[in-house]
Design brief:
There is one protein chain. With 253 residues, the protein is α+β, with helices and mostly antiparallel strands. Helix content is 23%, strand content 51%. Strands 1, 2, 3, 4, 5, 6, 7, 8, 9, 10 and 11 form an eleven-stranded antiparallel sheet that branches. The protein has a domain of 173 residues: Beta Barrel (Porin), CATH 2.40.160.20.
Length: 253
């Protein structure tokens, strides 16, 4: 009788443990099923996908070209240029053999072509015509002589903005002097020699293709002549120097 009571208690405890274990096993799948799923990453819309593709796509040729042009400080200055100038020579003198005489004002014109080799440098050529006479010859009523210069035109330049430019030009080349027959006291052949000048100038564009320019500086020439007098031919060296002022128009090509 005493042994039956503990046995009954043990059976009761074992039964309760089995119930608890079975209940926990049934709740575990339910909790796993009711757990919230992890949030999936957002899927971009078609419009958002196109925008991302555009950002990653390479620039078209036109856009790349425009970007390159905007990086050029002065795009119009990198175009070839053709200009026409009026020229005025002031002061100066001419020396023939051992005789020196002052020069009257000379007048002329020039046609010039320039190619921009670099942002700060241009190279071109110039043809100039100039009518000149010494003061004594002018008083005596002699005819005027004509100079033709064919020159190389190197120019150092700096752009102030898209429209304005300052420069230093040093033209140098060959000169031909068609002297009046009575200007040197005898029949004179066509002279041949050299020319050299230094000019400070500036130009201002009215628009993308047309503008104006002006220069001032100093020019030198050395020319050889043969003068025929009373049966004799005499070689004479003519040297000239004069202050130069020019003004004209230019066109971008």
């Amino acid at each position: 009788m005493r042994l039956s009571i503990p046995i009954a208690l043990l059976v009761c405890v074992a039964t309760q443990l089995a119930v608890v274990v079975n209940g926990s096993a049934q709740d575990a799948p339910t909790q796993a099923a009711t757990a919230e799923p992890a949030e999936a990453p957002p899927v971009p819309t078609p419009l958002e996908s196109d925008a991302m593709t555009d950002k990653l796509a390479p620039l078209p040729a036109e856009t790349a070209k425009s970007a390159a042009e905007t990086q050029t400080p002065n795009s119009t200055s990198m175009r070839d240029q053709l200009s026409l100038q009026a020229m005025l020579g002031l002061g100066g003198s001419a020396k023939l053999a051992n005789a020196r005489a002052d020069l009257d004002p000379s007048i002329g014109a020039s046609l010039r072509y320039e190619h921009p080799a670099h942002r700060y440098f241009a190279l071109g050529g110039q043809v100039a015509l100039q009518s000149w006479i010494t003061s004594p010859a002018g008083v005596a009523g002699s005819g005027r002589s004509t100079l033709v210069d064919v020159s190389l035109w190197p120019k150092a330049r700096v752009a102030l903005n898209e429209s304005a430019e300052l420069y230093l030009a040093i033209p140098l080349g060959l000169s031909f002097d068609f002297a009046a027959n009575d200007s040197f006291g005898g029949k004179t052949n066509t002279g041949f020699g050299w020319n050299f000048a230094g000019l400070l100038g500036g130009q201002l564009a009215f628009n993308s293709w047309l503008g104006m320019l002006g220069e001032m500086g100093f020019g030198l020439r050395g020319i050889s002549h043969e003068i025929t007098g009373t049966g004799n031919k005499v070689s004479a060296e003519l040297s000239m120097h004069q202050f130069i002022v020019t003004a004209g128009l230019f066109a971008k090509l």
